[in-house]
Amino acid sequence: MTFTERASEQLSQLDVLESHAIFVLREVAAEFERPVLLFSGGKDSAVILRLAEKAFRPGNIPFPVMHVDTGHNFAEVIEFRDKRAAELGVELVVASVQESIDAGRAPDLGPDASRNRLQTVTLLDAITAHGYDACIGGARRDEEKARAKERVLSFRDAFGQWDPRRQRPELWQLYNGRVRPGENVRAFPISDWTELDVWHYVQREGIELPPIYFAHEREVVERDGMLLATSRWVRPGDGETAYTETVRFRTVGDATCTGAVRSPAATLDEIIAEVAAARVTERGATRADDRFSESAMEDRKREGYF
């Protein structure tokens, strides 16, 4: 047995996943001129941020952090986003969907409508404005069928569009980062992680998360089989009644289409046990924009979505 084989036997699953993710982050920093880290304030992007800390320490993270802000965000997530950016001293770029609407670049769907799909225009405009050639994201292949088709370095053409049939082979973890002017890639360092891997890593690393990931009491309204938190964008409609429930969120996004789950899980151990027993992915269970169409995510990704 070689030294490398003996060493790999001593690595845990999390060690192997972490090592590969750090390798990808360093490859992106080395191969691209203007990478950016997409940060939603959710658990996956919080993990990516910790991996970036480890990848480049003792130096600073060598690229900015960008949030595509729908304007329909959970207050706890925005507070967490600003806090982490300040703690790390990274440049925070906020690309605003509302500004895209005001500029006539995206349609105004009304104050209560989901703005998830509108993020595509805002993201592509920000990529063009800042000249980003690689966008690092926290997407995982276990989340959804379209994301299972992604490469680690997922190529986007000059229009920001994704074609799963035109992705580059990645044999032996060799990554081709060549792009022409105007083209870019989306880099997914935790593609091979599962939701359970993410929670184990959060626990091991002591990563702070927004409190909405843990059980708490919140006023909700049940709509289309989902529990939506009431807010200025989500109000009870005809035949609906708001009530207080003990819930937590498995994923964060636009508050108009991101549902909570009934849960007493208030600690990391309890959340890990709950996720281990789950039979539906976090997006499949709690994202209205994905639940009612098998091709919804793939259609958005072809247009340039995350």
Order of helices and strands: HHEHEHEHHEEEHEEEEHHHH
Helix content: 25-40%
Tell me the structural class. Answer: alpha/beta
Stated plainly, the CATH topology of the largest domain is called Rossmann fold
Radius of gyration over all CA atoms, rounded: 19 Å
Number of helices: 11
- CATH top level of the largest domain is Alpha Beta
**End-to-end C-alpha gap:** 42 Å
Main sheet: strands, sense, barrel: 6 strands, mixed
CATH superfamily of the largest domain: HUPs
> From the structure provided, what is the oligomeric state, counting identical versus distinct chains?
single chain
Output mean pLDDT: 87
Give start-end ranges of low-pLDDT stretches.
none
- Give the overall shape: globular
Largest beta sheet: what is the strand line-up?
3-2-1-4-6-5
Strand content: 5-15%
* Total tally of structural domains: 2
Fold and architecture overview:
The chain is α/β, with parallel strands linked by helices and 306 residues long. The protein folds into 2 domains: 3-197 and 296-303, 3-Layer(aba) Sandwich (Rossmann fold); 210-291, no CATH class. It has helices at residues 3-10, 13-31, 43-56, 75-88, 97-102, 119-130, 195-205, 268-277, 282-286, 288-291, 296-303, and strands spanning 35-38, 65-69, 92-96, 134-136, 153-156, 184-187, 216-223, 226-229, 243-248, 261-262. The strands form 2 sheets. It has a 6-stranded mixed sheet, sandwiched between helices. A 4-stranded antiparallel sheet has the order 8-7-9-10, with no helix packed on it. Helix 3 links the parallel strand 1 and strand 2 (65-69). Helix 2 (13-31) crosses helix 3 (43-56). The protein is globular, with a radius of gyration of 19 Å. It starts with a helix and ends with a helix. The mean pLDDT is 87.
